[in-house]
Amino acid sequence: MSVVQPVFETLDDEIDPLANTLSRQIQKWAPEEGLTPTAVPGLELVRANSSLTNCIGSTVYDPSLCLIAQGSKRIWLGDREIDYGPLSCMVSAVHLPVLGKVTEASAERPYLGLKLAVDAQEVTALVLELGEGLGEMEERECAETACGLGRVQAEKGLVEAMLRLVNLLDSPQDIRILAPLVRREIFYRALVGEIGLHMRKFAVADTQTHRISRVIAVLKDRFTEPLRVRELADMVNMSESSLFHSFKQVTRMSPVQFQKKLRLHEARRLMLAEGMEAATASFRVGYGSPSHFSREYSRLFGVPPRTDVSKLRGELPQTARA
């Protein structure tokens, strides 16, 4: 297991009041635990009142920009373990199956965060408009830019823009006009900030990471079908070996492992949300053998499907997505 060490920093006198104000706003508009949709398109708020009752949850991250206002959490992506703390900013550039757990939360100081959906076309248009203003993209490989999840401590300008977006919930008549403008500012500040290299690599069409994002999109739409790596490689003009290497670099897992996790996450959702039996769910997501499905499910989630679902139905909403 590769562990990304926390980068939590002591909040300075300028940004600490922003974090407190953002936390109060999130608490106001997210009174219940779990994910709370808002009137602002693409914006969701997240809350957890305890780290003890919030077990490890599974989800598939959508392309998004997330910010923790208060508390902390841990994410497992393939062989990588990543910790996030107050005002940690995370970019999920592609769809990624992950496990997550809130590690610091209480009734007095709940875990609070927000998640803003990212439209790749919107980011790409902004990259093209900025042009040389972004400077040259560095071709370095590190934990924060090579894999599909990037994380930094948020800068003051980005936090201020995020707060302005949440504040629009207090004036719903302004959302239609002002929300797109604030979204644009948020993406601009992310692109020109420390997290910008990560975002740009997935927006520019001739990068390998952008090609991998296309492969991931296909796998997400067709994960129940047999995996044909050669067809995927041909689709993005890569060799099979190059595709395998780049795919593992971005997702921290092989294409086969990625497909398997998509199937298992979806089966878990079907059993929880639709009351589907384990055998039926296994066939629905592409498994030919319920016993094979049960073994792989237990390997990922730690317990057999029936035990896992029974346990989850008695617990609080999962907050692994933001």
TrEMBL record:
Q: Which UniProt keywords apply?
A: Transcription, Transcription regulation
Instruction: Provide any one GO MF term from the record.
Output: sequence-specific DNA binding
Instruction: State if Transcription regulation is listed as a keyword.
Output: yes
SUPFAM superfamilies for the chain: Homeodomain-like (SSF46689)
Q: Which PROSITE patterns match?
A: HTH_ARAC_FAMILY_2 (PS01124)
Residue ranges annotated as transmembrane are none
Domain HTH araC/xylS-type: from-to ranges: 213-311
Q: Which domain of life is it from?
A: Bacteria
Protein name per the record: AraC family transcriptional regulator
